Amino acid sequence: MISNFDKLCGDLEKQELEAPNGIASSSTYAQLLAIYLYQNDLCNAKYLWKRIPQSITSSNPEIPAIWAVGQKLWKKDLAGTYHALAAFTWTEPVAHIIRALEERVRERAFNLIGRSYSTVSLDTIVLMTGLSREAVLQICRDKKWELHSDGVTISPTPPVQPSPLHTSSEDQLFKLTEFVSFLEN
């Protein structure tokens, strides 16, 4: 299933490729850079940043602000990422991508915490999610994570991983036979 951002990404990449003189609009670059960050495609974000003309980055302060977020993500600096996200007043159409990016980064942080810790301090979760203590406590309650009696330690439960689809040996052999037959014909 293709998300709206995946479709928009394809459209923006096409706009960049078909732009007159090979230079797209600043809006195209800003949205594309934000979408790459949303998709956690940091390599493409970095290459896009390097190919955006200096005249565009200097005339549109939103693009360097988006890249500042990308740099924090690249360094896996979650606290810095939330700070960079909050440090700029985003304009539409980039603002809705940035909001989705922030939610996705936060969701990945909660999943990471759930998979990585048996116990963790509330302050660590606050730092990793960019939320207030009250908001973190509410989300921990919603996730049914155990709050210890000291009031500052939490025992998260790992997120449920979907079970992998198993293919029987006969199915695998059938597919291999079809493939070899296809290659021979």
Entry keywords:
flat; 4% strand; 3 strands; 10 helices; mainly alpha; 185 residues
Give the averaged pLDDT, no decimals.
90
| Residues in helix, % | 55-70%
Ranges with pLDDT <50 over ≥5 residues? none
The total strand number stands at: 3
Provide the succession of SSEs. Answer: HHHHHHHEHHEEH
Strands ordered across the widest β-sheet: 1-3-2
Number of helices: 10
- Provide the structure class: mainly alpha
Q: End-to-end span in angstroms?
A: 33 Å
Biggest sheet, in brief?
3 strands, antiparallel
How many structural domains in the coordinates?
A: 2
Name the overall outline.
flat
Strand content: under 5%
Global Rg? 22 Å
Subcellular location: Cytoplasm; Nucleus
GO biological process, one term: protein deneddylation
Protein name: COP9 protein
Organism: Danaus plexippus plexippus
What's this model, at a glance?
This protein is mainly α. It has ten helices and three strands.
